[in-house]
Amino acid sequence: MQNLLYSLVDKNRSWTQYGNVATYIPELSNSNPDTLGIFICDVDGNEYYAGDYKTKFTIQSISKIASFMCALTDNNINKLYTKISCAPTSDGFNSIINLETKNSHKPLNPMINSGAIATISLVYGLTAEDKFNRIFGFLKEITNNPNLKINYNVYESEKNTGDRNRALAYYMKSTGIIDDDVDEILDVYFKLCSIEVTCKDIAYMSVVLATDGFLPCNNKQILSKSICKTVKAIMTTCGMYDGSGEFAVNVGLPAKSGVGGGIAAVVPKKMGIGVIGPSLDKKGNSIGGVKLLEDLSNELELSIF
Ligand code: GLU
Question: Of 12, 163, 171, 175, which one has the fewest beta carbons inside 10 Å?
Answer without folding.
Answer: 163
